[in-house]
């Protein structure tokens, strides 16, 4: 029969305490504290529940008191090698994080325990280096920290590099040396409490403060702060040296809010997912199972969540655990649930051991066996050795559930990926559609004008916004400067207060010296009185020789009194050097004085006996005795007064010393606070200054780019005006030739002029394309160089800022950090070739323009002479076109003339070129309109008119009526073509809606065509009636048709060509 170990081996129960925070926002106080009993009350102050607790700290207790009463005593076990775990449990807002991490008013348990730990370690190291503690030597220690946060079963490293997106994932892994640990987490070594405080502050800033549809994620997060202590020393045994290593950990768990557990866990999983609240659900389930079945089972599954896995040693394992259960007023259900969980936790027992090298090696062996057994179980079967089948089935079900959850998550991710892919396809289609719409919109000049206005407006708004941002930056800079000045002023005030405190201390020290001098004077006076007393005693001894026995007794008493006074003097001297022994010496002096008083009373009694026995004693002896008694009484009163004064002075001095020390500590803390705020403000001011400098540089670059664009816009506008003047000269020359051809002065050469115009346009287009390609190439090169230089400048600026931040305090910066990066771009070097080519081309165009202007003046003189001769004609086409040109020169509304955006000007020019090419192709298209055939027809009709004027016959030779019918049909179909061409011209009218004069010209053409068409129709009807009546011969009909149509067609052709060419050239 085995020994009943379970009856005698017991662990250490988890120690629990309750902390209640003060009520806020007029909350009802429903948590009542009486000794170690907590009562929960309703709105009528009736007790609903009562719970007995091990320790209770009310709202009036701060964290420092808790640390001094309980947690400070656990630093020694930590140094001895025990693992310590502290966790907080409670609802959201009950003060869990503030208890561990602290707040602006007071430090938390982490910093206070770290401070005490470093103090104890330094003390131990100091004593071990000076004293020989047995056989131990060469003591050293190292402290490392780790800080992580767990949200939605994902671990975030709060001490790692935040910008590293390619770091390894953090997972909880069971290792043979450490047990459950977080793999790939950052572990940093600290040397003192200030470094640890800095790391804790940085980690708290990195904690997740975002929210989702279920509330703030901070209420569902778990933070784990671990302090790892490694101690090494050498043990010398019989000239053999053995290295002794002790490894211990101090873990702080800030658990999620427990208010979510008031609902059903299954409904929580359905509403918020299976992983968001998995930590708190798994933890409460584990605590319930361990509190109920710990006596039956020694194994509990802790791998159900990341938090429970990390708390494997804290709950029923190798650790001294302390649970802080936080309550708040106004939450009766949450408080009840927290107190019930406290009772469950208090039933859990831990088995903590000293984690020296041998224990760690033994634990490593057991962990290796457990991991191997677990691996064998996964590979060979589900029945784990040493565990009941029901537990194995439960683990199997958990594994299957986790596998199903992972599969569901994978399916959900695939669906989301497909949905995102479909959205991406739709976005691409929309993007392509937008590109097509953009191409269509770019073909309209009106919308380009609107976009130009919008861009101008946006530029103005950007400038306004830039000005506003600059004002805001200046305001913030001014406020930062004021704050910095205020901080300097307050720091100066603190220094003044410190000087005043030092002056007060000096005054107190002077006062103390005066008290000591008074004390010395009293001692001198006491010595004088003592000498007088000795002299009196000697006289009394001489007078009392008769009674030797009484005299001897008196002498002995006097000697004893003298010894007592000597001892009293020694005590007085020692009392001035040691304040701690002063009270003890005073008590002893009082005891001696009491004994002395008793002896004096005995002496008085003896004297009275002497007086009674020897009534014959002289009156002098009686008077002398009374005088001695009076002196003794005065001496006693003086001693008592001296002691009282000394005690009062000492108390006052101690009080003032404590006040001064408190003021010094307070001033030191305030000075450190102001210095930290000053450093923070200085850093912010530096960041703002750097940002302002970057914005100013960027603004200068934009202004420079704007000036360049304005200059280039002016150049292009000049080129466009020169090209327009050239085109207008060509148009005037062409119209003059048309007028001379119409008047018979010179034959019409439409084909030649068209070819010349096309050749001119082609030459300009080729030259424009060549220059544009060269310009775009230079611009791309310039843009790439600017981007590279800008990136180098940003890199140099960041390196400069980094060097300034890490520069030692008080050391002047080197000259290289005071200079700006030499990254100014030489525009002349980059665009020299392009500017030279443009200047050459502009000079060539100017020379050609002057030549064309001379030719234009000659042509104008010729046209002026012809105009004087033909003043009686109905229409002067040349004069009308010249008027149109002069009107276009005088008007301010020109496409692109008011634009400051070079891109919009290029777009307008390209649109005009495209429209010009379309019109040229349309004129050459035989299916739509053949200008050359129309011109030939005009020449043939003019030839017939000339023959008719000369008296020649123009009738058909055959005299066939079919020929006449064909001609009539052709002439009737010709106006239809004119109308279709007029409709096409009207369509192009929307490109020139700002040109009012051209619109009037098109309206004039339309009116002219309608009038001539009506005339032609009436003529055709009259001819048709005469043909039916057969009153006209075929010859007469042909002559009538030819005469009527000849003038119409000639005038129509001339007007159409004039306006078409005018539109094309302009």
UniProtKB/TrEMBL annotation:
One of its GO terms (molecular function) is ATP binding. InterPro entries: CCDC78, DUF4472, Kinesin_motor_dom, Kinesin_motor_dom_sf, P-loop_NTPase. SUPFAM superfamilies: P-loop containing nucleoside triphosphate hydrolases (SSF52540). Residues 396-451, 491-539, 575-616, 678-726, 757-795, 835-869, 902-951 form a coiled coil. It comes from the Eukaryota. PROSITE patterns: KINESIN_MOTOR_2 (PS50067). This is Kinesin motor catalytic domain protein. It comes from Tetrahymena thermophila (strain SB210). The lineage of its organism: Eukaryota, Sar, Alveolata, Ciliophora, Intramacronucleata.
């Amino acid at each position: 029969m085995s020994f009943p170990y379970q009856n005698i081996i017991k662990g250490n129960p988890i120690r629990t305490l309750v902390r209640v925070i003060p009520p806020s926002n007029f909350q009802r106080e429903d948590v009542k504290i009486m000794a170690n009993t907590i009562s929960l009350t309703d709105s009528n102050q009736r007790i609903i529940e009562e719970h007995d607790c091990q320790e209770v700290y009310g709202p009036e207790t701060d964290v420092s008191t808790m640390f001094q009463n309980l947690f400070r005593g656990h630093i020694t076990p930590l140094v001895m090698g025990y693992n310590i775990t502290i966790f907080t449990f409670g609802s959201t807002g009950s003060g869990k994080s503030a208890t561990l991490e602290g707040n602006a008013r007071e430090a938390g348990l982490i910093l206070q325990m770290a401070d005490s730990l470093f103090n104890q370690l330094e003390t131990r190291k100091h004593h071990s280096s000076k004293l020989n503690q047995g056989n131990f030597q060469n003591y050293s220690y190292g402290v490392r920290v780790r800080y992580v946060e767990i949200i939605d079963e994902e671990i975030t490293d709060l001490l790692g590099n935040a910008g590293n997106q390619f770091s390894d994932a953090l997972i909880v892994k069971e290792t043979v040396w450490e047990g459950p640990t977080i793999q790939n987490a950052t572990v940093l070594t600290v040397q003192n409490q200030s470094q640890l405080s800095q790391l804790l502050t940085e980690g708290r800033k990195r904690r997740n403060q975002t929210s989702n549809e279920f509330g703030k994620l901070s209420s569902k997060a778990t933070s784990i702060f671990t302090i790892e202590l490694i101690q090494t020393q050498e043990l010398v045994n019989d000239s053999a040296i053995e290295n002794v290593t002790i490894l211990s950990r101090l873990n702080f768990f800030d658990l999620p809010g427990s208010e979510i557990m008031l609902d059903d866990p299954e409904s929580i999983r359905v509403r918020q997912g299976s992983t968001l609240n998995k930590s708190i659900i798994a933890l409460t389930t584990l605590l319930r199972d361990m509190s109920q079945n710990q006596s039956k089972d020694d194994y509990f599954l802790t791998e159900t969540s990341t938090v429970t896995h990390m708390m494997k040693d804290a709950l029923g394992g190798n650790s001294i655990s302390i649970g802080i259960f936080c309550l708040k007023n106004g939450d009766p259900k949450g408080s009840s649930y927290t107190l019930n969980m406290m009772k469950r936790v208090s039933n859990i027992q831990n088995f903590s051991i000293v984690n020296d090298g041998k224990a760690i090696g033994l634990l490593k062996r057991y962990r290796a066996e457990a991991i191997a057994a677990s691996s064998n179980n996964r590979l060979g079967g589900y029945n784990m050795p040493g565990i009941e089948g029901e537990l194995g089935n439960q683990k199997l079900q958990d594994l299957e559930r986790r596998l199903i959850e992972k599969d569901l998550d994978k399916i959900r991710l695939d669906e989301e990926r497909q949905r995102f892919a479909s959205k991406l396809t739709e976005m691409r289609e929309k993007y392509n559609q937008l590109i097509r719409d953009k191409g269509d919109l770019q073909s309209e000049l009106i919308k380009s004008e609107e976009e130009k206005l919008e861009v101008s407006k946006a530029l103005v708004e950007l400038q306004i916004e830039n000005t506003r941002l600059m004002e805001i930056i200046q305001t913030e800079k001014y406020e930062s400067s004021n704050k910095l000045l205020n901080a300097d002023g307050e720091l100066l005030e603190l220094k003044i207060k410190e000087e005043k405190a030092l002056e007060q201390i000096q005054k107190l020290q002077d006062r103390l010296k005066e008290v000591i001098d008074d004390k010395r004077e009293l001692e001198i006076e006491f010595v004088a009185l003592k000498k007088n007393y000795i002299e009196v005693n000697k006289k009394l001894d001489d007078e009392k020789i008769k009674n030797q026995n009484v005299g001897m007794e008196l002498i002995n008493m006097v000697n004893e009194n003298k010894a007592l006074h000597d001892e009293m003097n020694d005590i007085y001297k020692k009392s001035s050097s040691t304040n701690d022994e002063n009270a003890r010496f005073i008590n002893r002096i009082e005891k001696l004085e009491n004994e002395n008083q008793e002896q004096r009373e005995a002496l008085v009694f003896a004297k009275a006996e002497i007086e009674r026995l020897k009534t014959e004693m002289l009156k002098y002896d009686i008077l002398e005795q009374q005088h001695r008694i009076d002196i003794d009484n005065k001496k006693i009163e003086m001693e008592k007064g001296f002691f009282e004064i000394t005690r009062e002075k000492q108390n006052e001095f101690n009080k003032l010393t404590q006040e001064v020390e408190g003021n010094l500590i307070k001033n030191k803390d305030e000075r450190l606070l102001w210095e930290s705020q000053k450093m923070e403000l200085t850093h912010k001011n530096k960041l703002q200054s750097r940002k302002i400098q970057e914005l100013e540089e960027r603004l200068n670059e934009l202004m420079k780019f704007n000036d360049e664009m304005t200059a280039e816009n002016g150049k292009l506008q000049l080129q466009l005006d020169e090209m327009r003047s050239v085109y207008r000269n060509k148009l005037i020359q062409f119209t003059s030739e048309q007028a001379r051809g119409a008047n018979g002065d010179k034959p019409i050469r439409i084909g030649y002029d068209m070819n010349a115009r096309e050749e001119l346009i082609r030459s300009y287009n080729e030259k424009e394309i060549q220059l544009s390609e060269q310009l775009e190439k230079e611009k791309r090169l310039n843009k790439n160089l600017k981007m590279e230089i800008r990136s180098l400048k940003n890199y140099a600026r960041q390196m400069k800022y980094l060097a300034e931040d890490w520069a030692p305090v008080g050391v002047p910066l080197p000259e290289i950090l005071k200079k700006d990066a030499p990254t100014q771009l030489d525009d002349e070097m980059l665009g020299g070739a392009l500017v030279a080519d443009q200047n050459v081309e502009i000079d060539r165009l100017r020379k050609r323009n002057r030549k064309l202007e001379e030719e234009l003046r000659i042509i104008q003189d010729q046209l002026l002479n012809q105009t004087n001769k033909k003043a009686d004609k109905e229409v002067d086409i040349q004069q009308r076109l010249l008027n149109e040109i002069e009107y276009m020169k005088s008007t301010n509304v020109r496409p692109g003339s008011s634009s400051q955006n070079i891109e919009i000007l290029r777009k307008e020019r390209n649109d005009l070129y495209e429209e010009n090419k379309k019109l040229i192709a349309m004129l050459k298209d035989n299916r739509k309109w053949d200008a050359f055939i129309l011109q030939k027809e005009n020449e043939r009709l003019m030839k017939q008119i000339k023959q008719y004027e000369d008296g020649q016959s123009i009738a058909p030779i055959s005299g066939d009526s079919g020929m006449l019918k064909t001609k009539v049909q052709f002439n009737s179909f010709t106006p239809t073509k004119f109308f279709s061409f007029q409709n096409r011209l009207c369509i192009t009218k929307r490109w020139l809606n700002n040109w009012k004069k051209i619109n009037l010209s098109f309206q004039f053409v339309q009116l002219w065509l309608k009038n001539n068409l009506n005339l032609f129709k009436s003529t055709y009807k009259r001819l048709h009636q005469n043909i039916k009546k057969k009153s006209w011969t075929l010859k007469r009909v042909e002559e009538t048709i030819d005469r009527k149509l000849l003038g119409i067609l000639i005038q129509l052709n001339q007007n159409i060509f004039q306006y078409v060419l005018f539109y094309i050239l302009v």
